[in-house]
Write a structure and sequence with these properties.
mainly alpha, globular
Length: 331
């Protein structure tokens, strides 16, 4: 009996374990399981939203990201949570992660809910949710622009027509918000959506008292080929803040959330400035960018991080080709 019973038990255990693993794997990849959990009023709802946001982020096939029904459902749940008005940590975390999840889609059904989240400002505890909503609007707008869905005739990309009146109004209002973290995110999204009103507001934001807001405004303008960004881009390429950073100090938080004295990592500022110059050169082939060349050259110094030197070399090569083309052009 031992020869038959013991192997039989082992096989049975293996089968049970395999079934459980398969069930767990199916549950972890089935968004409806998370949606069902989000509809139940339990303390761990926010964790379901976080897990769903992670699932959408890792969806390389874009199958989930293109699910309009799922986006609409999550948007409805977000609106319900906003209307409930709870301000405990679990409730605000739920809203925050729902915003992050909606930002991963490449279909616009969740946009109205994100606009509502970005404009709901009843208590300081809602600030992180507003930030997450603006970030998600920027990501969603970018996804729509990059995806084939954006040009299918139903959802034109942002550059083919102005943003909706509601979205533009939301962004322009956020661009004048008292909180710098809201203004800098508004500047980022305005740089994505474009349009005359967005460009005009970005130019005004170049004079914002918060340095990071001016940087995002310049990046947005550069993306649209506007040379009004050049002075701020030059400031972004200044290596002095990098040299003055304490040796071995961890990079500061880039968003300054809840701490207006924290500044963006100087390396990130310089890299973003170089990327913006590259975009400016592509978007405006005839612009005179000669003022930027010496600043880019200085960043090829061996004492700077390799990531900066490599990107500076790439951008300098692009600027050099423009200069050579201008000289060779018939007059």
């Amino acid at each position: 009996m031992q020869l038959f019973l013991i192997p039989g038990i082992i096989v049975a255990v293996i089968v049970v374990v395999w079934i459980m693993v398969d069930w767990l794997a199916h549950m972890e990849t089935d968004p409806q399981k998370y949606v069902d959990g989000l509809r139940r009023d339990t303390p761990d709802r926010w964790q379901k939203a976080e897990q769903l946001a992670d699932m959408l982020r890792s969806d390389r096939s874009n199958q989930l990201k293109g699910d309009a029904k799922l986006a609409k459902t999550l948007g409805d749940i977000l609106v319900e949570a906003i209307n409930e008005g709870r301000l405990d940590d679990e409730s605000t975390s739920l809203r925050l992660y729902l915003c992050r999840a909606l930002g991963q889609f490449n279909t616009p059904e969740g946009l109205p809910a994100l606009i509502k989240a970005a404009t709901t400002n009843r208590d300081p505890k809602e600030l992180p949710v507003r930030e997450a909503a603006l970030d998600a609007i920027g990501m969603l707008t970018w996804n729509l622009e990059q995806s084939g869905l954006a040009g299918d005739g139903k959802h034109p990309p942002p550059h083919s027509k102005p943003p909706s009146e509601q979205l533009l109004s939301t962004l322009l209002t956020a661009a004048r918000d008292a909180q710098p973290v809201i203004r800098l995110r508004a500047a980022f999204v305005l740089g994505i959506v474009g349009g005359d009103q967005a460009i005009d507001r970005l130019k005004k934001m170049l004079d914002d008292p918060n340095r990071d807001v001016t940087y995002n405004a310049a990046i947005g303008l550069a993306r649209h080929g506007d040379t009004a960004s050049i002075d701020t881009l030059l400031a972004m390429l200044d290596p002095k803040p990098l040299a003055e950073a304490p040796a071995g100090a961890p990079p500061p938080n880039s968003d300054g959330q809840n701490d207006p004295d924290r500044k963006t990592d100087p390396t990130v500022v310089i890299l973003n400035g170089l990327r913006a110059i590259s975009q400016l050169a592509d978007a405006n082939p005839t612009a005179d960018l000669s003022r930027l060349q010496p600043a880019v050259d200085r960043l090829r110094d061996a004492g700077l991080p390799l990531s900066i030197r490599d990107m500076a070399m790439s951008v300098r090569g692009k600027l050099s080709k423009r200069s050579e083309a201008a000289v060779a052009a018939p007059r």
